[in-house]
What we know:
Helix content is 46%, strand content 14%. The chain has an eight-stranded parallel barrel with strand order 1-2-3-4-5-6-7-8, surrounded by five helices. It has helices at 3-9, 24-38, 53-69, 85-98, 127-135, 163-175, 189-201, 219-226, 235-243, 248-268, 283-291, 297-301, and strands at 13-18, 44-47, 74-79, 102-106, 147-152, 180-185, 208-212, 273-277. The chain is of the alpha/beta class. The protein has a single domain (3-301), classed as TIM Barrel, CATH 3.20.20. The protein is globular, with a radius of gyration of 19 Å.
Amino acid sequence: MHIxxxxxAHPTTFSFEFxxxxxxxxxxxxxxxxxxxxxxxxxxxxxxxxxxxSTRERTHDLIIRIQSETNLTAVSHLTCVCHSRExxxxxxxxxxxxxxxxxxxxGGDPPRTMADYDRAHDAFQYADGLVSxxxxxxxxNDGRGFGxxxxxxxxxxxxTPNRLKEMDYLKRKVDSGADYICTQLFFxxxxxxxxxxxxEFAGIHVPIIAGIMPITRDSSxxxxxxxxxxxxxxxxxxxxxxxxxxxxxxxxxxGVHWATEQCRDLLDNSVRGIHFYTLNRSDATRRIxxxxxxKDSQALRTR
Length: 303
């Protein structure tokens, strides 16, 4: 289903994100979790994208498998990094032929194994150019082209300290043809509400969906900090996790509770959508749904 139809049909969307497994065995395990999450009737699911060759192919294979073997709407990530126009044309042709209608267009970063990669070889340096390029394609019968999402950063883009310029760059992506914004993960809803207001002030009026990732282990915090995602961890959350000591089950309960309260508050404040970063697991997301008092996202949408 085209993303424009999804937003038109559902006042609040609920979606899940996966990353491509590195082995065939891990791929089969992931599909077990996807089957469990499918019962929650998400609005769509997305698959992350790496610039490296093998990771890139696994993204293609996973997104097409989801499209062909499930009833889920699949959204594929696509980055500017390590791509010529010819390569991008080939990828979009493959998706169009496979029935993929939606793309999340990202600037991207070179793989760690390509630290000296020269971005001058890329067809596009920034996501707005990629959005314009994708917008030229018309894979659907109605001539609308691909549905396109772009990234937003409630806590600020790590590479753009100037928050005013950051909004200019975001508006440029939207004006190039983006249909919606999906935010990076955050742990304080006030950051999201401020970001939403700044978008409105900047003249950005496409749907903005909030990225949520429950902390299920203590090491997740360290990992996110190492990846320089820019995530800020509220002191109350850090204190709660610290009280768990070395008990991983307690950390998991605290993380799921925090994410549940984030979602409840977002829903009470008319969020347009919630996007769960699942880390290829289903348990935490399903428990958040249970904590919210519903069995599936369709029930959430109709409340």
